[in-house]
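Reference record:
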Amino acid sequence: MNALPPLCSAIIWGSGQCINKQKLKGLLFFLLQAVFVSIELFTRRGVYDPAVPDSQFRSAGYFIRGLWGLFTLGSLPRESSRQPVYDHSVMLMLGGIIAVIALLIFAAFWVWNVVDAYRTRRSINEGKPLTSIQYFRRLWDSAFEYIAIAPGMLLVIFISIVPIIFAILVAFTNYNANFIPPVRLVKWNGFNTFLDIFRISIWGNTFFRIFVWTVLWAFLATFSSYIFGLFQAMILRAKAVKFRSFWRGLFILPWAVPGIVSMMVFRSLFHKEGAFNQMLLAAGFIKEAIPFLSDPFWAKLCLVLVNMWLGFPYFMALITGVMTTIPQEMYEAAQIDGANTWQQFRSITLPFVIASTAPQILMSVTFNFNNFNMIYFITGGGPANPGYQMAGSTDILISWIFKLTLDQRMYNFASALSIMIFIVVASVSAWNLLRTRAFKED
């Protein structure tokens, strides 16, 4: 007897609930099935035409058509402007992703419907029957948080998760400048894109050298800002400094001014005919203009210096706050023991500051790993490097991906590189999160 309600609900949603005398709940599950079936029936396109390839799928409802499009990415390219029926691989992939997610949501309701019918029948046999109203009241009390966030979660799924899945799937296709739908359809190619990055010498060389520079840039950009911020915090903490609030406010200005504005100003200053070269030439320090932005070494040095200027106020403010929490008794005890200023800094201040700001340092490293704005607005990835594939000497991975996407339309390579970046950044962020006290307490 326990098997009859779930078996009936597996075929006609809500019928098991009706057998269990929960008609309201059964009606709601039946309406969900009616919505599911209606979507498939009323989204059919035209009629079956044997002259058109895969017409049985093209004329099917949304879910069948979506699954077919996701697996095949189309089979009929557009050969003329007057062609009435043709496929667009990108639209088919996107529609297929949405169809799969919708099917998973309906499948979750189907499982809920079957399991509920079984559990309700078992409760009735045990002498603990529930009416539909009692069930919904209990559900509201026990799962209110999930019910409240459900609408927002649906928006997150279709606005954020769907694009992410689409971007990931592109890496497993041949979607590039040579295969632009609907004229030329996109096809699945498995892991060939990832393999090409390493087995084609020009791609492998470019990826390896840009990856090394990206890692080096992330650490240089972070620790130069951190060390300079620490230095400024120590200077402002010195007793000999007067008007500390004024100087602290003045040093915060680089952080308060919009970063893009500062970057564009620095780009003009570092130009071959910019203010820096003009001042150095006028003072007689140099005989010819320094190629700040046209030489790889100088361009990378300029990036680090500009980032340090924009980033040190954050660390200065952070470290200043941390140092106020260091017990003064520790310094007094060190002075009694004969420790000088350097020894106090090395043994008390520095360990305490590093321990307190370690999570921010790691997060800053991951941020600079993808610091697209700095590269794009200062050097644009240049100067040009003939040994690189579609990249410049100062390009980091994220700016290289930008060029591959917008300039070269190498969408599959850009997607594959994005996945690699995500793995690196997510690993560092997860490691940082797992080490936090809040996560361990949870």
